[in-house]
Amino acid sequence: MKGINAIAVALTAATASASLVPHYFKRASSLPSVSVQGNAFFAGGNRFYIRGVDYQPGGSSGSVDPIADQSTCERDITEFQKLKINTVRIYTVDNSQSHDACMSALAAAGIYLALDVNTPKYSINQDDAAPSYNAEYLQSVFSTIDAFQTYSNTLLFFSGNEDINSVATTSSAPYVKAVTRDMKNYISARKYRSIPVGYSAADVDTLIYQTADFMNCGDDAMARSDFFAYNDYSWCDPSSFEGSTWQAKANYFANFSIPLFLSEYGCVKTTRQFQEVATLYGSQMTPSYSGGLVYEYSKETTTAPADLYGLVEINGNSVTELTDFASLASAFSNTSNPTGTGGYRPSGSPAICPTQDSNWNVTTGSELPIFPSGAATYLKNGAGTAPGLSGSGSQNSGPASVAFASGSSVAPTATSTSTSTSTSGSKKSAADSRMSDSAPVIACGLVVALSTLLGMALL
């Protein structure tokens, strides 16, 4: 069902009986904004646990923006309601398009958005980061912030996803952290609501802890992440808190000072029963963890074994619920959030920056790339016209080497205290190499609002 047909059906139902209107359509079209307090998220005075799915119909290539299309929202939001989720993660959006209708409908359904700001054309190149960190790139990032900062159900922004997934790519870490810094400074300079900004990491055993500490270290609070997330596929049913890597990670992050959650989870080595849901929202995890996002909503490939991912299969406007859909719905239904604040810590200290070793090839400590001078105008005047998904791209727009500085180095006039030189290499997009159809295998082995007038009539 899509477009005018959906409106006609809904109008008929509303006329016959207001009780037939979905309950989320009767709710307010805004949600309390989410903020960071200590190592947890809070909304409306209550602790907020992310309970959601990763959502990118059409795959993660970035060719389709699922919330710029009303018919897509109409098709999928009812399924979200069946799962009783409160968050969707989207990897790519078109920042030149309007998202008012879908964001309003998601809010009315009680659903927040966790949003990646990168696109395949505008992202940090994990293999040769320096040229990809430039004013053109930041203009796209800032345009995405402009497009979504007005919505109270914009939960958070990801500054990067799995850019650091090997020893060779650890050298891109300072650039990703600089993007976090720049986003936070842009939000502050534009006097926007303080929307949390952080990073979604690859769960690589030899890198995960150093990556987490790096994103949460240093004296510059604006450069430290507001949260840390990672993509975890270590719990493959049947497993357990002790049998997976979850216990080890929970122990390591016991004193982590910022919110922590799983930006992807749901191993497919065996039949998925989502037994990990009970543990994720249980007393062993909630003192440090704030929930997570299941990978993924829709089946995006027919190539084994990646074709095992997906809660639903989409064919045009038809949605078929797969076996995993019922399993996840049952797991969520049988698992409540903890009462009270779940043992969160209201305060804590930043991490110690990791030192260079055989796995962590970062030599700059807490020094980060200096903010590009050409981007200074955006802090004062806004990002301007958004490039969208059809822009020319930015990965080769910057210089081959970038100066680094310590402290609050967002000002383009900052003085360099060290210099990093990047040689040319493969221009592989960090967005292209992020979690996609094949990456989980490696890791593991709205109804749209009819109109404002109609909504008012139904209240």
From TrEMBL:
Compartment annotation: Cell membrane
Keywords attached to this entry: Glycoprotein, GPI-anchor, Lipoprotein, Membrane, Signal, Transferase
Pfam families xrefs: Glyco_hydro_72 (PF03198)
A cellular component annotation (GO) from this entry: plasma membrane
Keyword Transferase belongs to the record: yes
InterPro entries attached to this UniProt entry: GH (IPR017853), Glucanosyltransferase (IPR004886)
GO terms of molecular function: 1,3-beta-glucanosyltransferase activity
Broad EC category: transferase
Residue spans of biased composition, Low complexity class: 411-428
Entries under Gene3D superfamilies matching the protein: Glycosidases
Main location: membrane
GO BP annotations listed: fungal-type cell wall (1->3)-beta-D-glucan biosynthetic process; fungal-type cell wall organization
Database matches in SUPFAM superfamilies: (Trans)glycosidases
Membrane topology: Lipid-anchor; GPI-anchor
Domain of life: Eukaryota
Coiled coil start-end: none
Transmembrane segments: none
Region feature (Disordered): 386-405, 411-432
Family: Belongs to the glycosyl hydrolase 72 family.
PANTHER family xref list: 1,3-BETA-GLUCANOSYLTRANSFERASE GAS1 (PTHR31468), 1,3-BETA-GLUCANOSYLTRANSFERASE GAS5 (PTHR31468:SF5)
Its job: Splits internally a 1,3-beta-glucan molecule and transfers the newly generated reducing end (the donor) to the non-reducing end of another 1,3-beta-glucan molecule (the acceptor) forming a 1,3-beta linkage, resulting in the elongation of 1,3-beta-glucan chains in the cell wall.
Protein name as annotated: 1,3-beta-glucanosyltransferase
